[in-house]
Specification:
Shape of chain A: globular
Largest interface: A-B, 33 and 39 residues
Distance between the termini of chain A: 24 Å
Strand content of chain B: 15-25%
Number of helices of chain B: 12
Distance between the termini of chain B: 52 Å
Low-confidence stretches of chain B: none
Strand content of chain A: 15-25%
Strand order of the largest sheet of chain A: 4-3-5-6-12-9-13
Helix content of chain A: 25-40%
Largest sheet of chain A: 7 strands, mixed
Number of strands of chain A: 13
Structural class of chain A: alpha/beta
Mean pLDDT of chain B: 96
Number of helices of chain A: 10
Shape of chain B: globular
Oligomer: heterodimer
Low-confidence stretches of chain A: 1-10
Order of helices and strands of chain A: EEHEHEHEHHEEEHHEEEHEHHE
Amino acid sequence: MIGVEGHYEVKLGQLPTLTGKPTHYCAGCEHGTLTRLIAYALQELGARERTVLVDSVGCSVLAHEYLNTDAVQAPHGRAPAVMTGIKRMRPDLLVFAVQGDGDAVSIGLSELIYAANRGEPITCFLVNNGIYGMTGGQMAPTTPAGMITTTTPHGRDITLTGPPIDASKLLATLEGPAYVKRVLLPVTPTPSADFYNARGSMEGARSVQNAFRVQEMGGFAFVEFVSTCSVNWKMSILQSKHYAAEVLAKIFPPGLYKDKFGVEKR
Amino acid sequence: MTAAREFLRGNEALAYGALKTGLNAFFGYPITPSSEIPETLANEFGNPRYPGFKVFLQAASELEAINMVIGAASTGAKAMAATSGPGFSLKQEGISYAAAMELPMLIVDVNRGGPGLGNLGPEQTDYFQATKGGGHGGYRNIVLAPSSVPDMAAFPALAFSLAFQYRNPVLILADAFLGQLKEDLMFPEVPAQEFDTSWATTGARGPERHILSSMHLDLPELSRHSEHLRSKFEEIDRREQRSEKYQTDDADVILVAFGICARLSQRAVVMLREKGIRAGLLRPITISPFPRGELAALVQRGVKNFLVVELNTGQMLEDVRLATGGRARLASVQRVGGLLPSPLDIVRQVEAMPR
């Protein structure tokens, strides 16, 4: 048994909400962490039989291989629109997507903003690692200034490409969303850097559960997970955890940006 | 159910036709000359006469609309969108995914002048885009071509029936003239149709679950999926070619025309017959699958002359050429820019053909 701050307990091992297939995610990637957090939350809610996962395009495109629920594939960036169609037709279903920063904040920003503005009762999880992972390390809308990517070989010049877009802040300006939260998901180094804490996973577990609860209360929920991509950042896994905490989390500060229903206080 | 005669615009008739066949969900973005479809449906939303009509939503873009249709269709709902040329282009991405995931749905294109922004006049220039696939990857749509306001009313029922039978997107390709034309009509009695939706993604009850995905990373697996789509379309091609013949039995010149051009050509046949020329009309109702069986039969019977009348620069002409296999003389009357040929223009073209 593991316990997350005393109120969240699940049995380790095979969950009915997981297929049990090993993931294709790179070592150290938070997509794997998030997959498991979602599986825990769905199991807690007893929601498998009324859940539809919407696959986005990017590293999470194979999410249905690992999460043992019904699933529909959305074109690149269009998951919030596909989720809207499902949820409007079948309000009894629990509908969610895991999107990357390219999917949600670049090619699909319009679909995300309008679903959020309508307050669609759906749940969007954003994995923001500041780079295109699946296509091999190109600049994302969230890439920090100066970061070297395959399409910014001399570092991202924000005078040419604009600065990184803050999706959580952007959505929080809208009336529609009920829950907007940003979590630093990777393990983070302590000041002495001799051990790492998993506060991010605990915070992540709570946020995933809250995001589903908000949907069941009839609200639009968005959780952004500041994450790593050590492979495309060309760093070791541990270096990437430091970079996420010291650089990315400064550009994208973790916090609760909106909580209309007060789920964090309950 | 009133069986009264009604006087409606084509777009309105199409909207009521969809409602009477049990439409569940409509997602749209305004574009002339198709906007009366969402407007009519918005007015009827919540009318207790249509209890199955659960969702009307104006989307923020054509892309959003088609993807909402994908979402609703994945639950097994009768879902549709309506648009015109520029919006139809934007919808191609979604239609490709829907064809790959074998989702039944109805997309209406009220063809306007093009390319680009073009104008608001009638054209049939989206013929290639509608009948040959339109989006990326290899797939086919079933495409119905109404030629009257009563057709606009009746075709949604046929479209949903074919869409669910074959689990494939079905398009209705109309044009600006048909969308705006007012005619009187009687709505056909549509029996309530129940379709098999056992494939829908509505939550996994038990160990079995449903996955609607267009991605098959394994090469042989995608190859098998594409073969499956191909054999499905071959079956559609064998079983669903639909056309209407007018005075073709003794004809030695056959006009081939769909949509509004079929109406003009029918009048031309009457005028030609008055002049003693034995003309007939073959009007494709499905332009995909194309009724090449009927054309081949006419060639077989010895018809040597075909005149293709269409509002583009020779798109259906290519299908007629394939169907007649070089064994007949082809001529054509083509108009673009929103202009229509007059029946007299068609008569003169027939008179100019060598016989």
